[in-house]
Amino acid sequence: MTEDPAAFDPGFQLERTALAWRRTLLALSAAFIAGSRVLLDQLGAFSYGVAGLGLLAVVVLACIVERRYGAAHRHLTRVSRVSLPHDGALIATVAAITVFAGMVALLFVVSRLM
Amino acid sequence: MSDTDQRDTNGSLGGGNRFPRSVYGVGGEPDPRFSLANERTFLAWIRTSIGLIAAGVALEALAAPVQPGLRLAASVLLIVVGVLAPVQAWSGWANTERAMRLGRPLPAPRLVILLAVVVVAGCLVLVGTLLGR
């Protein structure tokens, strides 16, 4: 229950965004896990290292996202006007991780030519 | 939510030196719902990118029954667009957020048409090859 129901997240914007973050991070995790299996022949045990690094980054991001939305959720249920903790750093990090995954994928495909 | 309300509340949760300065250094706080929608659009692009990369890798890794040269070309094309998509997603997010802070019209999406053309072309090539076998 909220202390001020009128103030609480009309349209479930916050929850929808949190869910979007979760499915994006889950998709990235799946990509790293599947990628480590696909790259096993080319990279050997190193592929597990790459996947581990990727998964670690995803876990750290997930913790940050959950904390951020927890804080915003608490704030939304308490006051009627709020500036959410927006910041481009999370956005840039996710974009960079995806570009990194894409570059590894490109190397994998090109390496099959040789 | 009035303009004054949006501008007065910066600081309790956000505020400070937010990254990037090119976005947060200008204008006032937009309605948070629009910022959240912008963020979800970015995330949808990231998932599209992951899908494109996965499709490109799967074509090669699973050795799809397609003429090898064509398969490699389609695979590289999918992955290259998959790598470009997060870059576009970032710049699109930043431009949109900036436009909202300045109260300007939202920028037009840029990579969408290229992406559509590439996906349709890739599908046609693959279907054609599969049918021609």
What do these coordinates show?
The complex is a heterodimer of chains A (114) and B (133). With 114 residues, chain A is mostly helical. Chain A has helices at residues 13-38, 40-43, 46-76, 88-111. In chain A, helix 1 runs antiparallel to helix 3. Chain A starts with 12 loop residues before the first helix and ends with a helix. By secondary structure, chain B is mainly alpha-helical. Chain B is built from 5 helices and no strands. Chain B is elongated and about 60 Å long. At the A-B interface, helix 1, helix 3 and helix 4 of A face helix 1, helix 3 and helix 4 of B.
- Which class do the helix and strand fractions of chain A yield? mainly alpha
Number of domains of chain A: 1
N to C succession of SSEs of chain A: HHHH
Oligomer: heterodimer
- Which residues of chain B form runs of ≥5 with pLDDT under 50? 1-15
Largest sheet geometry of chain A? none
Mean pLDDT of chain B: 82
- pLDDT averaged residue by residue of chain A: 85
Instruction: Estimate percent helicity of chain A.
Output: over 70%
What is the terminal-to-terminal distance of chain B? 61 Å
Largest sheet of chain B: none
Summary of the model, kept short:
Chain A is mainly alpha-helical and 114 residues long. Chain A is built from four helices and no strands. Chain A has one domain.
Key structural traits:
heterodimer, A: 114 residues, mainly alpha, 4 helices, B: 133 residues, 5 helices, 72% helix, elongated
Strands, helices and their partners?
The complex is a heterodimer of chains A (114) and B (133).
Chain A: H1 13-38, H2 40-43, H3 46-76, H4 88-111
Helix pairs in contact in A: 1-3
Chain B: H1 3-8, H2 21-24, H3 32-61, H4 68-102, H5 112-132
Helix pairs in contact in B: 3-4, 4-5
